[in-house]
Amino acid sequence: AAAAVCHATARIGDAEDMRVRGRISIVNDGAKRLGLALGMAVEEALARLADAPAPTGTLPAMEETRRVLPPSAAAPGGPEIVLVDSASLVSPEDTGRIVVTGSHGGLVGGDPARALKAEAALAVFNDAGIGADEAGVTRLPALDARGIPAVAVAHVSARIGDAASAWERGVLSRANSRASALGAETGMPLSAWIRGAFQAN
What we know:
The protein has helices spanning 15-21, 29-33, 42-49, 139-145, 163-169, 177-180, 190-197; strands spanning 3-5, 24-27, 66-68, 81-84, 98-104, 122-126, 150-153, 172-175. The protein has 201 residues and is an alpha/beta fold. The radius of gyration is 19 Å and the shape is elongated.
């Protein structure tokens, strides 16, 4: 049994806020059999999910990917571009690179120190619908304070958790002040903006 919480009712990346304010937006068949319904408070849903039977099947293995794009994909003379499906795959070796993630742009646990694990030339996230308290893009100002340009792509333009989708189809929805100074504006295709903004002088 499984259910999801509406992004407009609770902050993404904040489990306690989900518990207190969250409302259910989608349920699977197992959750329906337990009486979960759209609009239900998470507190009530949790009580019902406690009666769910133990799962009997297994999920297929899914690997999150990480790859550096060939130089032809980047702006002439510009930084390398690395695609990571999860921001957890970012490493110190990505310092100076353009890091395109499939992750949401919300601070995990609200901790600015966890915004990004490298001093990147640019960080890209999915806005995850932006949602309650604009939590889906809270990494952007945190990275501004570290001097790192950061943008989010609209959740309707690219699949969350899929960095290749963000690179190939993402459309900018938000930018921090460092990225705005590089010409980032809402509605721009991500890849086209990057190629224009990061050309070597």
